Amino acid sequence: MALLEAKGITKRFGGLVAVCKVDFALEKGQIAGLIGPNGAGKTTFFNVITGIYQPEEGSLNLDGKSLLGLKPEQIASRGIKRTFQNIRLFANLTAVENVLVGMHTNLKENLISILLKTPKVRHEEEAALQRAFELLTYVGLKGKENELAKNLPYGAQRKLEIARALASHPKVLLLDEPAAGMNPKETVGMKDFIRRIRDDLGLSILLIEHDIHLVMGISDTVTVLDYGVNIASGSPDQVRKDPKVIEAYLGPGAAEHDERGA
Amino acid sequence: MKRKLLLVASLLMIMALIVSGCGGAKTTEGEKQAADAGKVIKIATSSPLSGAQAAVGESIKLGAQMALEEKKAEFEKLGFKLELAPQDDQADPKMGVSVAEKLIADPSILAVIGHYNSGVAIPSSEVYNTGNLAMVSPANTAPKVTDRRLPTVNRICVRDDVQGPAGAGYAKDKLGVKSVFVIHDKTAYGQGLADEFKKETEKLGLKVVGYEGITAGEVDFSAVLTKVGAFKPDMIYFGGMYPEAGIMVKQAREKGITAKYMGGDGLDSSEIVKIAGKNITGLIYTTAATDITKTAEGKAWAEQYKQKFGKNVESYSAYGYDAALVALNGIENLLKANGGKMPARQDVAAEIRKTADFKGIATTVTFDDKGDNKNAKVYFFEFKGETYPGELIGEK
Amino acid sequence: MDKFKSMLTKPWMSYLVALLAMGGAALTVSVVPRSLFAFLFFIGSVLLVYYLPLSTKAKLFFVLIGTLVLMPIIGSFNLYYMNVATQVGIYVALALGLNIVVGFAGLLDLGYVAFYATGAYIYAIFASDQAGNFIHFAKFPLAGEWFWVFLPLSLLAAGITGILLGLPALRLRGDYLAIVTLGFGEIIRIIFNNLDKPVNITNGPKGITPIQPPALFGFTLNKPIYYYFIVMGIVFFVIFVTRRLEHSRIGRAWAAIREDEVAARAMGIPLLRTKLMAFAIGASFAGMMGVVFAAKQTFIDPSSFTFMESIGVLAMVILGGMGSIPGAIVGATAVVMLQSQVLKSFSEFLAQLRDSGILNIPTQLEPAKFERLVFGLILVVMMIFRPQGLIPAKRREMELLEEKADRPAKGEES
């Protein structure tokens, strides 16, 4: 059974069908790419998984348990964490604090125990801080721990956002265009980085990305959406050769030049 | 950078000026006190000097100032410099208490003239009492001001539980009213007065056909006036202030309600004429302040006041003056008795309470054991046209 | 300031400066007890300790000495300053409470005074004969000892009121929340204004008086110094709670919601519950202070809890620096001192000059009339040139325990 499984997901906005009967599966430890032209419904699909939208039809399961009807924060605490296309860090908090907020669902402190500062709370806070520093070192932000998030350079902000999402040991990580706005060299770095966190942490990652090279380079499976419809899914090689995909990206009659489509 | 520096520097300078200014004043004053101990006697006024009620508050202050300036020479002969310490209580109980705490800490202050609002006077007077500081109120009409029987608290004006019933009696005896509709503005003053009126009307056997509250600040009274229209009372009684009263009487007349309209001293303001226009004719109000221009003495005083301050007397100007005179008179008696020593505050309070048959410009003052003025009267005025004040039609 | 700091190379120098400043200030006050300047000097010396490069413990020690030992001594020279310090304390607690809502969690609350009123009325009703109107099996007013029961009781009651008001209001954001809280603040006041019928609970607009002062073992605590210590006790409690919460899971969740609600939810932070907690905790501080206010004032009526009061507390928080604990304290102190002290003394100074004939001010320009105007101008100037507040919020620098040991000791700041 797949870790994250969506079947027949449909989301409508008034008369517009943004996502139509999409099937999707993410196996444990895999990287799945989600691609499609602008307006294909990728981000809508993302928002359905993270609970921002409720689908009209279909089922959505994590580890066999349904996620339908849950609020975003409940889905996050089930172990699905995400990053945002247009970085949404807590701008006026330090890097370490951003990561600590990411651990929110793991910490057990409550009002009473905080006020009493019980030994348990103290240990928990110390351990959390320890782990936050480790995580920041891991993503390459050592020495920047006490910088305000808004003062970090762009690439570092991307990494911090990922570190924040990783902080609570999620089962599934959703990355929304992690390489957006990066130059080719940085994009390669991001590609290696994503692969590394998958390998080191055994995570399952779902990736939306415009950069086809990035997606094809690291994904185990690729799903292609066009006008909200799942037009192809499979290994990168299969998808690359799929005429429907080439058509969607390059227009009708472009299938014969499949090399360019990739 | 330079601009910022300049700014910081100038701000610092202003701060320094303010601080050294006040500090300096205080220390020189302290030195002065040390040099010729207790040679300054201060009378404080505490009334709203800013905000919506500033006009009345200031008239109290100016009245007291007149009294002080008159008495200055006499006190100088006794070896004391007389000073006024005007305070702004902002018509706010918290500010009143804060000011009161400030006043009791200054040993040269021997009496307070104030306040205008009973809601401010009640908590503030608790503070005065802890400092044994005498208060003479020119304008607080709520019964509770003196009903607590604080030895330091006195007032020279009439109480609401006299004013309200007096209105009721006048309505029955002089106006021949048989049924009334009572409206109040849900404030301490308005509701208090309306309740006293209602109690008396019921006692006198008049029929109270309705009792309703409106909200101060409203401008549309058609809801309550529709009810009034249905009951067809002989008279509407309103416990509240002039802005609502003015609008309400105008709307009532426009609705064709011809019932008589009566209110308390809250209606005693020149503004009401401007608001109600020609509909003001026939409106009757009871007030604790008389029309001092009726006597030759009072008229002269009013002219002097106008000359000095460039303003017409307001209803409570003369009461501020009388209250200050009562306080100063008490202090003067003590000074004469003890040969020019600075009197203790307890003695001042006791002496003021002993005041009897003291003739002021607006009223004659004799305090009873609670500190109420036995001679305080209720005055009845009726607007005969669009001129303020209305015509004095009776007193009780 | 930094230059000055760099001169204090050794810790003992800072101790010396703190001792000299506070001791000197206390001495000045005792020599010229009626001088506002001396009192401001004293407040300044306590503030100076905050800026000195001392350890947190040393700062706490000096502040405790200043507020719990020196201040009462100063108060014995001039009782009035005892009252001023109490007033400052009341508003410090209110500003700290509102700071949790507005500063930490970023929820603009314009009806904060409603909770203050709730606390004040709960105590006032039972500590006067008012409760006798609707409860017949007990004798009212309750004895002053009940004051201590009502402190935690009103804390709870105001907290629950906060949750009840917050449940509908906190579903809204930004401007809408501000408008709804403004409305709720007014509604609470109007309810108190009208609850004299059909059963007389609040005595309506006429207000409740007299209210029992607190008592302990039959001894009535109605002197300014007792109120001062009660208020200081609450203020230290509030500071303690606020500080603990600020750098905890809850405090971070508030900051996250303030910064970005969508991202905060994606991190698993339940919006409504976290906001409600901020609302309730802020409200409970106000409720507790309300009890002290009612007892100290001995008279309360709805006109003490108007919209302007909420705005006043908000001004303190903004003036001090949103989200900053020392900011809220300094902001409240500055506003109270300005309003009740500095401006009044200044206008009295002008009036004195006029009386003695040095300055010719026409009666139309009575200086006391312009206090509020000058106060407003000062606020406007502050907001133009220092919009972040007197002591802006700073994030605490965090280090790991073992690393701390390696690095040279550094004065803790936050």
Give me some keywords for this one:
heterotrimer, A: 262 residues, alpha/beta, six-stranded mixed beta sheet, four-stranded antiparallel beta sheet, globular, disordered C terminus, B: 396 residues, Rossmann fold, 2 domains, five-stranded parallel beta sheet, 48% helix, elongated
SSE layout:
The complex is a heterotrimer of chains A (262), B (396) and C (414).
Chain A: E1 4-13, E2 16-26, E3 31-35, H1 42-49, E4 57-62, E5 65-66, H2 72-78, E6 80-82, H3 95-102, H4 111-116, H5 119-138, H6 154-166, E7 172-176, H7 184-201, E8 204-208, H8 212-218, E9 221-226, E10 229-234, H9 236-241, H10 243-250, H11 258-261
Parallel strand pairs in A: 3-8, 3-9, 6-7, 7-8
Antiparallel strand pairs in A: 1-2, 1-4, 4-5, 9-10
Chain B: H1 2-35, E1 40-47, H2 54-77, E2 81-88, H3 93-104, E3 109-114, H4 118-130, E4 134-137, H5 144-147, E5 153-155, H6 160-173, E6 179-184, H7 188-204, E7 207-213, H8 222-231, E8 235-239, H9 242-254, E9 260-263, H10 271-276, E10 284-287, H11 296-309, H12 317-338, H13 345-353, E11 358-359, E12 364-365, E13 379-382, E14 391-395
Parallel strand pairs in B: 1-2, 1-3, 3-4, 4-5, 6-7, 6-8, 8-9, 9-10
Antiparallel strand pairs in B: 10-13, 11-12, 13-14
Helix pairs in contact in B: 2-12, 3-4, 6-7, 12-13
Chain C: H1 2-7, H2 11-31, H3 36-51, H4 56-77, H5 79-104, H6 113-126, H7 147-169, H8 174-194, E1 215-216, E2 219-220, H9 224-246, H10 249-259, H11 261-266, H12 271-297, H13 307-320, H14 325-355, H15 371-385, H16 401-406
Antiparallel strand pairs in C: 1-2
Helix pairs in contact in C: 2-3, 2-4, 4-5, 4-9, 5-9, 5-12, 5-13, 5-14, 6-7, 6-8, 6-12, 7-12, 9-12, 10-12, 13-14, 14-15
What can you see in these coordinates?
The complex is a heterotrimer of chains A (262), B (396) and C (414). Chain A has 262 residues and is an alpha/beta fold. Helix content of chain A is 40%, strand content 23%. Chain A has helices at 42-49, 72-78, 95-102, 111-116, 119-138, 154-166, 184-201, 212-218, 236-241, 243-250, 258-261, and strands at 4-13, 16-26, 31-35, 57-62, 65-66, 80-82, 172-176, 204-208, 221-226, 229-234. Chain A has a six-stranded mixed beta sheet, with helices on both faces. A four-stranded antiparallel beta sheet of chain A has the order 2-1-4-5, covered by helices on one side. Residues 257-262 of chain A have low confidence and may be disordered. Chain B has two domains: 40-158 and 294-365, Response regulator (Rossmann fold), CATH 3.40.50.2300; 161-287 and 380-395, 3-Layer(aba) Sandwich (Rossmann fold). Helix content of chain B is 48%, strand content 17%. Chain B has helices at residues 2-35, 54-77, 93-104, 118-130, 144-147, 160-173, 188-204, 222-231, 242-254, 271-276, 296-309, 317-338, 345-353, and strands spanning 40-47, 81-88, 109-114, 134-137, 153-155, 179-184, 207-213, 235-239, 260-263, 284-287, 358-359, 364-365, 379-382, 391-395. Chain B has a seven-stranded mixed beta sheet with strand order 7-6-8-9-10-13-14, with helices on both faces. A five-stranded parallel beta sheet of chain B has the order 2-1-3-4-5, sandwiched between helices. In chain B, strands 11-12 form a two-stranded antiparallel sheet. In chain B, α3 packs parallel to α4 (118-130) and α6 (160-173) packs across α7. The longest helix of chain B has 34 residues, at 2-35. The model of chain B is unreliable at 5-37 (pLDDT under 50). Chain C is mostly helical and 414 residues long. Chain C has two domains: 1-77, no CATH class; 85-323, no CATH class. Helices cover 68% and strands 1% of the residues of chain C. In chain C, strands 1-2 form a two-stranded antiparallel ribbon. In chain C, α2 runs antiparallel to α3 (36-51), α4 (56-77) runs antiparallel to α5 and α6 (113-126) packs antiparallel against α7. Chains in contact: A-C, B-C. The interface between B and C is large, with 58 and 51 residues.
